[in-house]
Every structure is written in C-alpha cells, then in structure tokens.
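Internal ticket - ligand job 194, 5-O-phosphono-beta-D-ribofuranose:
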Amino acid sequence: MAFPGALCAIFFVPRRGYGKLSPMTQHAKPLVGILMGSKSDWETMEHASKTLDELGVPHDVRVLSAHRTPDQTLEYAATAEERGLEVIIAAAGGAAHLAGVIAAKTRLPVLGVPMESKSLKGLDSLLSMVQMPAGIPVATLAIGKPGAINAALFAAAILANQHAPIRQALERFRAAQSKAVLEQGDPREAARKN
Ligand code: RP5
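stdout (structure tokens):
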C-alpha cells in the first residue's frame, strides 16, 4: 500500500553532522519508521526525528492511530519489513496501545515512547505501553522528550550492528556528549559570572 505523500515525510539532513551522508545515503530508503498517534505528539517526537537526522539515519514519519485509523495502522506494520524498515518507533498518549498493536503485526523491534498526557502527566501512557504481556515485546522509553531522544539513539544502536556509518556516527555522538560534559568544569564558576 502506498501512503499519502502529505502524511509521509522523509528526513535526511543532519543538523550537527555526527553522521556522514553520501549522496547514496541521502537517497536511501528509510531504516526507521517514526509513528505517532496524533499530530499533537509531533512537538515531542520531532526530537526523535532531529536526533536521527544528526546521526544520518534515514527515516520516515507518520501519524497513524490504533483506534482512529486501525486498518492503516495494521497495514503499516504488516508491510514495514518489506518496505525496508528495520526499527519502528511508536509514540502515543493516554490509553497508549499503538506500540503494542504495531508490535503484534511485525517482527521488527518496536520502541515505544509514552506521551506526556494532560490529565495524568504521561503515567497513563507509560503504564499502558510498558505493561505488555509476555510474548509481544515493546521496548518502552521514558515519558516525553527524553524518551523521544533515547528512542532515536536506541534505534541507531540497533542499526549500528549492521550499518558501519551509523555505528561511527553514534560513536562520534557519544564522544561529543562526554566532551561537552567534561568541559563544563566547576558549576560555581559559571554561577559567579552570571
Ligand atoms: C493518542 O491520544 C495520541 O497519541 C495522543 O497522545 C493522544 C491525544 O490525541 P489528540 O486528541 O491530541 O489527537 O492517541
């Protein structure tokens, strides 16, 4: 099934350039699919997309809901592997069943990101997602933005086993992160300057 172009965006260009993008890579098929239950989740999930951009990981982004678009959601999951996806990131809030439904229809690893809901601050999303009964796993990350970023890093770590450029990008990201922390020095110095 072809997905409507208006709903399907593919992001390639890294902001900070931990990943090296050759012209071939830029036209590569998406390896990661980012799904979210509502457009309202994008404010959080754009951090996953940006992190994948930084690592040079081709990915697509879709809004699909387990309860509002059940048929298209199942179709997406059932065809994910043949379309070349290797990891799926699924974000949802409230009674967050999207990741579990996706995982039920594909053998690909599914990483779940619980959205911070208004009424219960994401605890509802977290518990709905993380408490999968044995047999169909969803690797659930933290609520909100930290979970979105870590889902992208986790996806890259999975891909790094088979994709050397992504492994190198991840290593550069880790090294830069460590360097930035070590350069911070004594926090009292910064406080004195302000
Ligand atoms: C879930 O319901 C979505 O993942 C979203 O987090 C939540 C609220 O969706 P909207 O009512 O904002 O569309 O399906």
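Auto-summary: The pocket of 5-O-phosphono-beta-D-ribofuranose is lined by residues 36-38, 40-41, 65, 92-94, 115 (CB under 6 Å). The chain has eight helices and six strands.
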